[in-house]
Amino acid sequence: MIPEKDTKVGKSELQKEKYGSFALFDIEHFLRRILKNWYWFVFMLLIGYVISWVYSKYYAQNIYASNLSLSISNNTSSYFTPNQSINFIWGQNGNQDGVYLKKMLLSRSHNEFLVKELDLFVNYSTKGVIKSTYIDKTDSPIFLQVDKKHLQQINYPITLIPKGGDSYEVVLPAEGQSTNLYSYETEGFQSINGYSKPANKIIKINEWFNSPNLRFRLLKNTETPKIKVDNIIVTLGSVNQSVNDIVSTIGVEFDKEIATIMIINKKGFNLNSTVNFLNKSVEELQKKRLADKNIVNKNTDLYLQNNIDNIRKKLDSSATALNYLKTSEKLYNIKDRDEKSLDKIKDLEAKKADIVSKISSLNNIKNTLQAQDFDKMISTNAAGFEDGFFSASVTELKALYMKKREMSTIYKPNSEPIKEINRLIDEARSGSSGTLRNYYTKYYDEISKIDRQVAEANIDLNSYPEKERKYLDAERGYSMIEATYNSLLGRQNEAQMKVATNQSDITVIDPAKNLGQAPIGPNIKAIKLAIMTGLLLLPLLFILIGEALDNKIRNIKELLSATKIPLLGVIGNNSNENMLTVLEQPKSSVSEAFRGIRASMRFLMENNKEEGKGKTILVTSSIGGEGKTYISINLASVIGLSDKKTILLGMDLRKPKIFGDFKIDNKYGISNYLTGEVEIEQIINKTKIPNLDVATSGPIPPNPSELLMSERNFRFLEELKEKYDFIIIDSPPVGLVADSYELMKYSDANIYVVRHEYTEKYMLKMITEKYHNEEINHLGIIYNDYNTKQGYGYGYGYGYGYGYFDEDKNYKEPLLIKIRNKVQTIFNKK
């Protein structure tokens, strides 16, 4: 029962610091508190289940998703559709066409067009008894058309209730009308004067509803809705708000195997809305892509047509001059013509005319590029070449200029970002200009070569007379203009053919469809689990906080491990109304525990024997209420019953107690003796136990510490040692006053009372340090008020709960103890 004292020589300072230090958290007690409060967890679990069920049934808004897959073809090159040969956006590699399309799909301009085209700022829903449900426009029997010229109040629910036929009652909220109204024309807000709440009104299809904050009419849905609703709630939103809401719900991904396949998904509160939006979005994108591709071809056609008109005038003029020479000069039949040389010259000059026409187109492209008028660019085919690098560099240059315009609203002209984008523009411009210079060089080289060949051919014609050479020059001029005219016509036909045969490079593989897809959210199971887990954590949190803030002694093992002070015994809970347990319940387990302590005392005093004198036992504790007096009374009683002459001294002069239990008059006591008012015989009182006397505290003196530390008190104790075998001192608590530490110098044994779930851990620090610093000797602990029904502890106080003692006859084992004992019985069977 008494652990060995730590008597190691030369204890380190670290070891000394550990004495009296308890663990910050008692996991064992924490788990037992959880088991003890199991009903709170069950209750919170049920509450959580009910809340999650109500939420999922009446409040959760389902989120749906639909998707569409499309393919992007790369068989054309245009200034307005990026090419694979160059980075379109800084740092982007790979599927540039796909990246471009992704940006288009998520762009504000594209989605703003859809919002305005489809009236997506008008939101429809219907309300049941509790829950509101979003519906698609096509699910509503009527559409709401706003007057965009009229100011409208947004985020203001308009309830439409069918009244039979084509009539609907317009019900507006009882309050909430605003003077800050939205204009769909300017896409901004304007303030108006105050007004009264608009009255509810019944209107018919195509009839306008007018109020200061609203103007709209109802249009009948030409298709029969698949669902029936008792009411329609319409809420208007701003264009900007609607665009932002839409963009935030769109996702774009690329197929992992084929990068040119794009998968677009849209989330929303209504499946039909997501399907309709995706299909319309891609349809409009296809139209825009086709229009973008045709811009260049249409510009080219217009440019070529202007050139053809000018060349036709020259051709007509040349034909008139040639005819004049034929008729007036009779030169249409020249003898001995060198047809071979003439044909060669005509072919060379036709080639030159074609190249000159191409250089003219090249000049147009160059000038348009320098003017940054990208929307008027013509096709490079008009200049006689197709160059993917040039097309991509023009696309990049256009994107950089657009980016610069955006950045100019944020950064200053000399800022580093502007300098960087200017550098990139210069690089892109240099690339495109370099490409054009290459073609200029090529064309001029070809013209020089043709001129040399024409000059050589002209040598053979120098022998002709002047009139005949004049005719041949006119004929050659006509042929050259005719060749240019035919070349322009051919390129015009090519441009017109491209316009006629062009198709969008976006092909829908799988359109969005309503296939009855299950909602993707909210995750009801996860929400239920989160709600129930959260409510389950509440009692756990309270217990955890309580455990963290609780600094009470609850575990005997931890107490002994932290203090290394011997344990004399464990006293169970006192169910008696007074403190005379040993006298009134001698066969109880508590009385037996005191007998065990009496036996343990001899081990505490075995090295402190002084022949012929009584033994002084001092009983103290940290603070009041820990059972110090109770221990003193019953320890004195159990020693007195063992035929040892014993006296119990009530030296807690500040708080007298002993006299009440023994029914002794406290008029005179130790305080009176120490002040010299009475003699020793006057303060010693007999009790029902023949060998037990009691000296009460007496009246509370003004100077209790001085009296206890006085020489008269020490002589008093020495005198009592001559008369009694044991002196039991009920001393003041050491956590409040230091009197007991001085009295311990004259005692043979010291008992420190620790009360279960009452004594604070930090209170044991001082007594433990003094014990291990050998300032106090012969010290033992009594663990008081231990609740045996908790089913844990150090294991002392044998027989608790098994009917061994009279007070335990009706004892009922706790459920956990009963289960444990049953398991042990099963496994201990042989």
How would you characterize the overall build of this protein?
- The protein has 830 residues and is α/β, with parallel strands linked by helices.
- The chain contains 24 helices and 23 strands.
- The strands form 5 sheets. Strands 16-23-22-17-21-18-20-19 form an 8-stranded mixed β-sheet, sandwiched between helices. The protein has a 6-stranded antiparallel β-sheet with strand order 3-2-12-5-6-9, with no helix packed on it. Strands 13-14-1-15 form a 4-stranded antiparallel β-sheet, covered by helices on one side.
- Helix 2 (27-36) crosses helix 12 (524-549), helix 5 (108-118) packs across helix 6 (239-247) and helix 15 crosses helix 16 (628-640).
- Mean pLDDT is 82; it is low at 82-94 and 791-811.
- It is an enzyme of class 2 (transferase).
- Keywords: ATP-binding, Kinase, Membrane, Nucleotide-binding, Transferase, Transmembrane, Transmembrane helix, Tyrosine-protein kinase.
- GO terms for molecular function: non-membrane spanning protein tyrosine kinase activity.
- It catalyses: L-tyrosyl-[protein] + ATP = O-phospho-L-tyrosyl-[protein] + ADP + H(+).
- It comes from Chryseobacterium pyrolae.
